[in-house]
Amino acid sequence: xxxxxxxTDDDAPLPQxxxxxxxxxxxxxxxLAMLALMLILTLLGPLIAPYDPSMTxxxxxxxxxxQHWLGTDSIGRDILSRxxxxxxxxxxxxxxxxxxxxAAGLVLGLTAGYIGGAVDQVIMRVLDVIFAxxxxxxxxxxxxxxxxxVPNLIxxxxxVYTPILxxxxxxxxxxxxxxxxxxxxxxxxxSEFRLVTRHILPLAISPILVQVSLTLANTIFTVTALSFLGxxxxxxxxxxxxxLAEARQFMELAPLTVIAPAGAIVFATLTxxxxxxxxxxxxxxAGKR
Amino acid sequence: xxxxxxxxxxxxxTFPPRRGNPAVRAVEGVSFDLAAGQTLGLVGESGSGKxxxxxxxxxxxxxSAGSVExxxxxxxxxxxxxxxxxxxxMQFVLQNPHSSxxxxxxxxxxxxxPLLVHxxxxxxxxxxxxxxxxxxxxxxxxxxxxxxxxxxGGQRQRIVIARALAVDPDFVVCDEAVSALDVRTxxxxxxxxxxxxxxxxxxxxxxxxxxxxxxxxxxxxxVMYGGRIVELGTAAQVYENTVHPYTxxxxxxxxxxxxQAQRKxxxxxxxxxxxxxxxxxxxxxxxxxxxxxxxxxxxxxxxPGHNVSCRFWPAGMTPGQ
Lengths: 289, 321
Description:
The complex is a heterodimer.
Chain A: H1 26-43, H2 45-48, H3 79-115, H4 117-132, H5 135-146, H6 150-176, H7 180-188, H8 192-228, H9 240-247, H10 256-287
Chain B: E1 6-15, E2 24-34, E3 39-43, H1 50-57, E4 65-70, E5 73-74, H2 80-86, E6 90-93, H3 107-118, H4 126-136, H5 153-165, E7 171-175, H6 183-200, E8 203-207, H7 211-217, E9 220-225, E10 228-234, H8 235-240, H9 245-252, H10 259-268, H11 291-294, E11 299-303, E12 306-309
Parallel strand pairs in B: 3-8, 3-9, 6-7, 7-8
Antiparallel strand pairs in B: 1-2, 1-4, 4-5, 9-10, 10-12, 11-12
Helix pairs in contact in B: 3-4, 3-5, 5-6
């Protein structure tokens, strides 16, 4: 047998690269566009907002006009400015809390799923205890106990959503860890940490992304609801839930005072739901190849 | 003769009882030596413990008894970190090339990974090494930035082989390395393996159920049945002077590409002998030895280097029949 001339190749010529685009991505696109709009408004808030959100004026409960696009509230503050600035607080709490929950969920879920056995049992049973409480009730209890400050709200929401994310991380890890390429990597001598982060997590990421997006939607709702109940960030800084609560009594006189923050909440929630659905479809398609 | 590269002694793997099923003794009393540059073919039917043996040697499966020594160091008692270091000397080629490559990693990352783990060469030479590995297995180095799903089965198996050879191991376990491929691709991969074997002076444990392939690649052949090695010898000894009836059955089961001959064999085919699993060392074995008294292993040397176990003989059958 010659030792230099290899049989050059198998029957098939090297297949062409798969086209990246497929038709089902419009939903993700829409979600990302909505997210981008929200991020621009939030990040550039103070530059965009037409008025100081805390500045009162005698022109109270004004309808929409050229000066005040969304009218003014009961003490004459510009609603549009308050929406933009208030979104910063609401979204900050939401995003930071979900990031924390995701970090905790990843660590706990990966540990439980990868190590398995008794460790898995202990971690998951403890999380089950938290999971057993209705999210909202638990959040109210924790905030009421700790006091309604921004860091406490963030911590509360992170704790409440950690079990959900940990479960979503753990489930695919359980199956992926026994796949051949993981064993192959182990036989190469890859460390456990790298095994989990490079060979298991990337293949378990789809459901996690979808769940993170859904959790963001839920969290916005939870944050605004807590604020609505008076457990949100203290006044005078605006936030969507608080605006809704203040405007409730003037609903008949100036509907816009309620419609505007409600619309903002719906828009933000919808953004993440659209994103979650789009991701779910897109990633499923990719998984089928 | 110097110490063997790999020395396996009384290796056993027992799977614990689960859900009411009794414990399974998948591998028992497996012993053999492997010299540098030699290939041992491990054959047997499905469920005979071939793959488990391979995994236990690589310490991917915990052995319940026995020892595995590679380069004179006992792997079974090593700590995790030490073992990871030893993995530089032993590599694994898995059966199914469609599942043994990480679908989210590019070919270059897949081939760089063993280098990152073991650092046999400085980092700035990794890229050149990846290219030379791809060339060595007959692939165009231009494919380095592609993903595994862009390749056919044979091409993927070449990549798997390249990964196994990245750190210049002394010993490779090829677990059914070609059985997931079509026949023509099999031939190409076998040619590649045979070529690499001689060029790199590689030792390997070649697990397969295709006897012809094993004959082509292996210097020595071990036949497994019921978790035990029943016959071990050079390829010529095992194939031509078959002693154990199970080996005979296995060889006779290979279809021959000759209609007349095949029909004749089918007509003559006796019902497959029943190989009893229970074995009592207090009674004389098929070679007339009572192992409980003599204390000898259940292992009989027929010719130098050709050993046969006295287990699993059908009732009434004796050697020489």
